[in-house]
Amino acid sequence: MQIETLRAQVRGIVLAAGEPGWELALETLLWNGRKPARRPAAIVRAADVEDVRHAVRYAAANGLTVSPRGAGHNWSGAAQQAGVVIDLAGLDEIRVDAAAMTAEVGPGATNRALVAALEPHGLGFPVGHCGSVPMSGYLLGGGIGWNAGRWGVACMRVESVEVVTADGALLTASAERNADLFWAARGAGPLFFGVVVGYRLRLAPAPRAIRTGVWTWPLEAHEDVAAWMQATMAWAPASVEFTAKFCAAPPPLALVSAKVVMAIATVFEDAAEAGDAILARIGAAAPAGALEAQVGLPTPIPALYDLIDAGFPRGRRMAVDAMWSDAAPSALFGAIARGVARAPDAECFGLGVVRSPLAPVPPAGAAAFSMIGPVFGALYAMWRDPSGDAAGRAWVRGVAREAAPAVKGVYVGEADLAAPGRLAQAWTPEALSRLAALRARHDPRNRFRREFAEPGCEETAAA
Ligand SMILES: Cc1cc2nc3c(=O)[nH]c(=O)nc-3n(C[C@H](O)[C@H](O)[C@H](O)COP(=O)(O)OP(=O)(O)OC[C@H]3O[C@@H](n4cnc5c(N)ncnc54)[C@H](O)[C@@H]3O)c2cc1C
Predict the structure, then answer these.
(1) DSSP β-bridge partners for residue 45
(2) Is 21 left (phi over 0), alpha (psi -120 to 50) or beta?
(3) Which of 298, 303, 305, 235 is CA-nearest to residue 267?
(4) Distance 69 CA to ligand 1 centre (A)
(5) Does the CB atom of residue 187 touch ligand 1 within 6 A?
(6) Where does 209-424 sit in CATH, by number?
(7) Sign of CA dihedral 250, 413, 107, 383
(8) Is the pTM of this model over 0.85?
(9) 352, 374 Cβ separation under 8 angstroms
(10) What are the residue boundaries of the structural domains of the chain, listed by start?
(11) The domain 3-87 is classified under which CATH number: 1.10.3720.10, 3.30.70.20, 3.30.43.10, 3.30.200.100?
(12) What is the CA radius of gyration of the chain?
């Protein structure tokens, strides 16, 4: 099939390699400033579901791979493949049924847009921690969002999905219909073998008072902080989300300590007094020697987005990894803290989360999302100049190697997917083999094949 035929069929925009606007389109495809060497043959900016079907059929007719793209946020550049990229950002409709407490959302709908659409109804959903991430790949990989202690992993609140399959058919998948497809759509991430063009979400009443406390110490206090966070989460209600950030000190504190560990407790309650009482109890047991404590800040989710999005500047060159652990938090946090102490760029940082033991976890076998642990850790290398690529990547891999004895698996949404063997660690062996069997059945020609190789990197992977 000629590209002109596709162009005539779709309402959206078709760009073939080399056409005017091509380089700019490629430049803005991915959120990470560091791009893979592979380049697509064409980009289709879908205006509707029929456009997606036409694009999938065009790829099949020309023997090309299909590469769905939500907002290109996957740090490993998964959405930039050598075949036809189908850009779903324009499919961003959100329809809320407040009485049924459900929402129908397009893959391009962002966390921030969903929060804004739900807010007038007093409803909520475990949206991710940054406003610009779309439902598309966020839900497909699992979705570790705000208030996960109460609401669990976001994909388990997906009631059904609309999927364009490898042969261009449009199917609905739910627990009752096309259950295999539904199982895969909740956790397969980049290994999914269709294009999700719509999600139906189960909503919940939104917490009316979200309060945050932030305590900061010199980085060397990381062991005491990890022990305190572990002890706190043993008694804290599920409304508490507790995260440590290991990073360069913000300007006023940098005079005292170049690198710091900040413990950030966010409490999702309905009454400010309840949230403040929990924060006061957490703070009362905090290790001595904090450089600063700010407790009881009102932080509705849009305010959290303003704060957090500023820490992830679009277009920065990045390398990222994210890990689950069953060990005591100090094991993973220690490796991350020591890594941050020797980071090649001041913008590099790490996160450590102690999850609530009360948080719902997906029942075994219920969904492809199958890898999770009580402790989460993530590494974010950021730098500006291409000359920093090797050091940034090596830093992430070196710290991940040091953390390995405490690591049981990775989170596919943020893992270093170019590292050999890393992708397979995102699922249990049972889930991975079921996923492989479903891929072979639903996508026999491997249209949804993914490359994760990186230029100049001796260690690469594909799936
Ligand atoms: C700043 C930032 C903050 C983040 N915060 C969080 C967080 O708080 N919690 C969390 O869980 N994750 C978080 N992530 C990770 C994020 O959820 C994943 O990287 C996710 O893949 C991003 O979605 P996307 O649609 O932009 O993915 P893309 O990069 O566009 O796509 C990645 C891959 O996913 C598949 N894919 C995407 N959409 C579809 C679709 N509709 N149908 C079929 N396949 C598809 C494709 O295989 C594609 O190659 C964050 C990422 C960034 C950059």
Answers:
(1) 13, 87
(2) left
(3) 298
(4) 8
(5) no
(6) 3.40.462.20
(7) positive
(8) yes
(9) no
(10) 3-87, 94-206, 209-424
(11) 3.30.43.10
(12) 22
Is the separation of the CB atoms in 264 and 302 below 8 Å? no
Does any ligand 1 atom lie closer than 6 A to the CB of residue 133? yes
3-class SS of residue 150:
helix
In one-letter notation, the amino acid at residue 455 is P
Whole-number Å distance between alpha carbons of 359 and 190: 25
User: At 365, is the secondary structure helix, strand, or coil?
Assistant: coil
> Tokens standing for 185?
């759509």
Decide whether any atom of ligand 1 lies within 6 Å of the 377 Cβ: no
* Ligand 1 in reach of 70 Cβ (< 6 A): yes
105-136: pLDDT as tens digits: 999 999 999 999 999 999 999 999 999 999 99
Per the DSSP assignment, residues forming a β-bridge with 462 are 451
What is the whole-number distance in angstroms between the Cα of residue 44 and the centre of ligand 1? 18
Q: What is the dihedral of CA 236, 240, 243, 244, to 10 degrees?
A: -50
Q: If you measure from the C-alpha of residue 189 to the centroid of ligand 1, how many angstroms do you get, rounded to a whole number?
A: 8
Gap between the Cα atoms of 402 and 407, Å rounded: 10
Q: Tokens at residue 188, please?
A: 């397969």
- Per-residue pLDDT at 418 exceeds 90: yes
Q: What is the CATH number of domain 94-206?
A: 3.30.465.10
pLDDT digits (tens, 9 = 90+) for 213-240: 999 999 999 999 999 999 999 999 999 9
| Identity of the residue numbered 108 | G
